[in-house]
């Protein structure tokens, strides 16, 4: 009897386990103060889920990686700005247009600062935005599919660095130029930089329904370098803050010449005012060439549209649009606390942190207490806007995030540490070393009104002796600290892809419930999709051949094709007929000058094959799909260019 | 002698019935070179899963009871044919074995519930249902794909199957 009861209990337990397979009950719960050692705190047992998603920029890899926290496990590398042969990103015909720019096809970029969309000042988990620094672009990643679905090029910009940060309701994704350039671009001597080169700040609107991006307007600024930015929130919603350096307007030997001034500026931009000016007709359309690339989830295909003008507002001519807050010294991070009152300038060549007060700034503007102007833009008095200074906290402050409990955490690059300090009293309360040379840091939900203050992730530039050596190039890394107690505690080191410049994090349950499992075949509007094997065919149009192919466990239809000739351009349009979760198929063709395709259930993708040699050439499935995966293969017969063999195709016929 | 042979044959048969295919294979190996009638007898007893008739097993899944009207609902059958063509023909062909078995006369071999559960819940069926497990082996491990059909769509396919000769 006892045995039976045991059995029943066991079965019921099993049933429970099965029933909670895919929901948030699997999310690891914090073990609190009793979790005595670091290993226990980051251990996520097999089959359990992490508490947080971390989206970490891939830096010079051009991509965005998705990690789980606290485990530091890598789930996915989302291709964004760089071709990715694994996923055919930028290789298949459907996604090539995503990498189009006014300079043509640019298959790489330097991905820097991801930011998660917000509603009412809190992260909503709908999209992640990230900037391409080199050929200025902003990309949008859809968090239902974890795919890049839109990339917009930024004209009049160079080194698109102070990007891509969102306003409280994702009204705008904001991008600022790091390098000033002639606007519009023209042939002129570099030495005539001063006064002639300009900066631009771009405001890209985001459609609240479908997320569609549109470059609404740009603000023409003095020829400084615009380094980083953050939105106002709460009372300061409607403002955007940009750190600047090279207010010297130097164009050569920058490491000396751009570090002369004791103070550079944080530029406070009133974007609500900008909207008023636009309504009043004060903006000017100016010619500007830039690409806008959109991926359509129904056609599974991207289109690239070239735009030819942009609405420009000149900060020098429009009073009240921009004010300059003196900030020592070449500030990097420009961070706004969860209340929206404090704007932290991380003067990277300074030992101090400078904190400006939004209330004081408004009062100074009201009282017109200006210290001068730069190209017609009022400069406020340092003392009038200063809220406080964190004195001698470390060397080389870069970036500050907040825990939502009144504490701030700043990275110091030169002294290689994270320093915890208190908002309001400006006292340092804790510090922990980083290994080594920390750049940015991230608290999940950090750039919002409500950070989730459990962990801080520090991202390091140098690892030297921290991992097994891998030749001259060694990994870069992230380090996770527990910040739930009074003292920070280093929990984990883990390697990252490319250079982890910056990251954005969010509680897993907000995102995972929206994650798509398949693409519905009925909704597939790809012009070359075939939805049943009966409709598969091969069609010749001159020397262009279209193969309308399907795939399902574990065969292609058709899998024998004859009548292809040397010199043909053969497009394989392949539809995955599966409608079950986690059953992608791949396809690759011997000698094709491109990558494989990796096709999700219900999706259609296309690759081009230009056969150069007579023979019978095989293709096969590249993603292990079933016990009969090794049988998932086919042949194409290639005849000489002069052949008159008609096209034929078949599956399972003798 | 004859009697003892018979006893041996019967006990072998009993063994076969109580055990799975593995033992059958063993038996076949041993019986290589023996007389023809015995071989036929063995084959008969281990009928293929696709030919096995089981009109009581309802399978495992969301469907516990289906009532079939005497008259075939032709509108529903037509809808079923449409869904079948769109979602199933990559592996199932009418009137002939393809990747999977032909659906003709399936209701002479299976309960309606079993058929619908196989459509709607193939992973669990091929793991736990004895017949579905055997089918997976018979069809060389080619899995029955879950095509994400609704119960209504599966029911219409069932009605379509009733129209097949």
From TrEMBL, chain A:
Alphabetical keyword list: Copper, Metal-binding, Oxidoreductase, Signal
Localization annotation: Cell envelope
Pfam families (UniProt xref): nos_propeller
GO MF: copper ion binding; nitrous-oxide reductase activity
InterPro entries: Copper_CuA, Nitrous_oxide_Rdtase_Sec-dep, Nos_propeller, NosZ/Cyto_c_oxidase_sub2
Top-level enzyme category: oxidoreductase
Signal peptide (from-to): 1-24
GO cellular component: cell envelope
EC number: 1.7.2.4
Superkingdom as given in the UniProt entry: Bacteria
Protein name: Sec-dependent nitrous-oxide reductase
TrEMBL record, chain B:
Keywords: Heme, Iron, Metal-binding
Keyword Protease in record: no
Top-level taxon: Bacteria
Heme recorded as keyword: yes
Molecular function, one GO term: metal ion binding
Pfam families named among the record's database cross-references: Cytochrom_C (PF00034)
Signal peptide location: none
Domain Cytochrome c: 75-165
InterPro entries named among the record's database cross-references: Cyt_c-like_dom
Membrane-spanning residues: none
Full protein name: C-type cytochrome
Taxonomy of the source species: Bacteria, Pseudomonadati, Bacteroidota, Flavobacteriia, Flavobacteriales
């Amino acid at each position: 009897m006892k045995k039976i009861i045991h059995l029943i209990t066991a079965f019921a337990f099993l049933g429970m386990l099965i029933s909670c397979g895919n929901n948030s009950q699997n999310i690891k719960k914090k073990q609190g103060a009793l979790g005595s050692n670091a290993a226990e705190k980051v251990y996520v047992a097999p089959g359990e889920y992490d508490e947080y998603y971390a989206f970490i920029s891939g830096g010079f890899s051009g991509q965005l990686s998705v990690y789980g926290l606290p485990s530091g496990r890598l789930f996915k590398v989302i291709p964004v700005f760089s071709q990715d042969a694994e996923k055919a990103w930028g290789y298949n015909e459907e996604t090539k247009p995503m990498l189009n720019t006014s300079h043509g096809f640019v298959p790489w970029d330097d991905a820097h600062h991801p930011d998660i969309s917000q509603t009412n000042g809190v992260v909503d988990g709908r999209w992640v935005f990230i900037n391409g620094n080199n050929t200025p672009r902003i990309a949008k990643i859809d968090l239902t599919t974890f795919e890049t679905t839109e990339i917009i090029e930024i004209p009049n910009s160079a080194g698109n660095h102070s990007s891509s940060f969102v306003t409280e309701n994702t009204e705008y994704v904001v991008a600022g130029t790091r390098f000033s350039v002639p606007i519009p671009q023209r042939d002129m001597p570099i030495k005539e930089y001063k006064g002639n080169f300009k900066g631009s700040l771009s405001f890209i609107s985001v459609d609240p329904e479908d997320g569609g991006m549109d470059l609404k307007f740009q603000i023409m600024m003095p020829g400084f370098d615009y380094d980083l930015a953050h939105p106002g929130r709460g009372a300061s919603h409607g403002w955007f803050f940009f750190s600047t350096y090279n207010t010297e307007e130097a164009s050569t030997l920058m490491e000396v010449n751009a570090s002369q001034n004791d103070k550079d500026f944080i530029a406070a931009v009133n974007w609500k005012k900008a909207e008023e000016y636009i309504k009043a007709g004060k903006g000017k359309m100016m010619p500007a060439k830039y690409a806008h690339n959109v991926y359509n989830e129904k056609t599974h295909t991207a289109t690239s549209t070239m735009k030819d003008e942009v609405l420009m507002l000149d900060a020098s001519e429009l009073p009240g649009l921009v004010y300059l807050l003196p900030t020592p010294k070449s500030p990097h991070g420009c961070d706004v606390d969860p209340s929206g009152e404090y704007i932290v300038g991380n003067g990277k060549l300074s030992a101090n942190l400078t904190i400006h007060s939004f209330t004081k700034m408004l009062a100074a503007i009201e009282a017109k207490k200006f210290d001068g102007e730069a190209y017609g833009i009022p400069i406020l008095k340092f003392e009038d806007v200063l809220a406080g200074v964190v004195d001698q906290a470390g060397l080389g402050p870069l970036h500050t995030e907040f825990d939502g409990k009144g504490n701030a955490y700043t990275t110091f690059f030169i002294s290689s540490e994270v320093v915890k300090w208190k908002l309001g009293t400006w006292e340092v309360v804790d510090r922990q070393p980083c290994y080594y040379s920390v750049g940015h840091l991230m608290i999940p939900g950090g750039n919002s009104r409500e950070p989730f203050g459990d962990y801080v992730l520090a991202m390091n530039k140098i690892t030297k002796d921290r991992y097994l050596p891998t030749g001259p190039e060694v990994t870069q890394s992230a380090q996770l600290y527990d910040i739930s107690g009074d003292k920070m505690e280093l929990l984990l080191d883990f390697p990252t892809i490319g250079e982890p410049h910056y990251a954005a994090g969010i509680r897993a349950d907000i995102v995972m419930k929206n994650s798509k499992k398949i693409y519905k075949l009925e909704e597939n509007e790809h012009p070359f999709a075939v939805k049943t094997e009966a409709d598969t065919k091969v069609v010749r149009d001159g020397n262009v051949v279209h193969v309308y192919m399907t795939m399902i466990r574990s065969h292609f239809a058709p899998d024998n094709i004859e009548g292809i000739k040397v010199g043909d351009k053969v497009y394989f349009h392949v539809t995955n007929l599966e409608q079950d979760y986690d059953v992608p198929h791949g396809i690759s063709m011997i000698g094709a000058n491109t990558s494989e395709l990796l096709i999700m259930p219900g999706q259609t993708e296309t690759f081009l094959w230009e056969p150069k040699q007579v023979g019978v050439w095989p293709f096969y499935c590249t993603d292990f799909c079933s016990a009969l995966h090794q049988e998932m293969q086919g042949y194409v017969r290639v005849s000489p260019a002069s052949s008159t063999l008609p096209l034929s195709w078949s599956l399972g016929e003798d | 002698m004859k009697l003892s042979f018979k006893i041996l044959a019967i006990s072998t048969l009993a063994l076969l019935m109580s055990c799975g295919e593995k033992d059958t294979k063993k038996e076949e190996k041993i019986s290589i070179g023996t007389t023809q009638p015995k071989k036929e007898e063995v084959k008969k007893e281990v009928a293929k899963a696709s030919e096995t008739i089981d009109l009581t097993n309802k399978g495992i899944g969301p469907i516990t009871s289906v009532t079939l009207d005497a008259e075939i609902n032709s509108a529903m059958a037509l809808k079923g044919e449409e869904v079948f063509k769109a979602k199933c023909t990559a592996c199932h062909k009418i009137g002939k074995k393809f990747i999977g078995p032909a659906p003709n006369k399936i209701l002479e071999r299976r309960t309606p519930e079993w058929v619908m559960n196989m459509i709607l819940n193939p992973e669990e069926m091929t793991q736990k249902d004895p017949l579905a497990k055997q089918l997976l082996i018979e069809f060389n491990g080619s899995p029955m794909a879950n095509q994400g059909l609704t119960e209504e769509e599966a029911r219409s396919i069932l009605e379509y199957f009733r129209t097949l000769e």
